[in-house]
Amino acid sequence: MTTHTSVAVHDVLEDAADHIAANGYCKHYLYSTTQASNGVPLKDCSIDILGAINLAVHGTPRYTGGDPLVAAAEAAVRARITAPSVAAWCDHKGNGKAQAIALLRDTAAELRKAAA
Q1: Rounded to two decimals, what is the model's pTM?
Q2: Which of 97, 113, 110 is nearest to 17 (CA)?
Q3: 31 has pLDDT over 60
Q4: Are 45 and 26 in contact (CB under 8 A)?
């Protein structure tokens, strides 16, 4: 990962953490389908880590397909976990809002340090 890409991924991960801090955290899907079906705009629904990364990059928690910045951010998070995927980590019992924010911020800090 180049320094420029590391900085860009850092910023995405910080924005993703901010979205979860502001809107809440959900499990089992990119965003709360219950909130969305009740009229809450997707950008304001509680979200998981992958939804937050997509929201930070595209303004929607939905996958828009093949974005290298989304892929790089997801790969950076995946490198810090022992679960088989970020989605599996999000759904694991005990991983909630505080843990998701910490994972995103810690990963961002590691990338910032590596880019310095």
Answers
A1: 0.93
A2: 97
A3: yes
A4: yes
- Identity (one letter) of the amino acid at 100? A
Over the stretch 7-20, which tens digit does the pLDDT of each residue have?
Answer: 899 999 999 999 99
CB-CB contact of 40 with 46 (8 Å): no
Find where tokens 């850092």 sit. 10
Backbone φ/ψ region at 93: left (φ over 0), alpha (ψ -120 to 50), beta: beta
At 23, list the tokens. 């809107």
In whole angstroms, what is the distance from residue 38 CA to residue 24 CA? 16
Please, which pLDDT band fits residue 3 given cuts at 50, 70 and 90? very low
C-alpha 55, offset from chain centre: 8
3 state SS for 10-74: HHHHHHHHHHHHHHCECCCCCECHHHHHCCCCHHHCCECHHHHHHHHHHCCCCCCCCCHHHHHHH
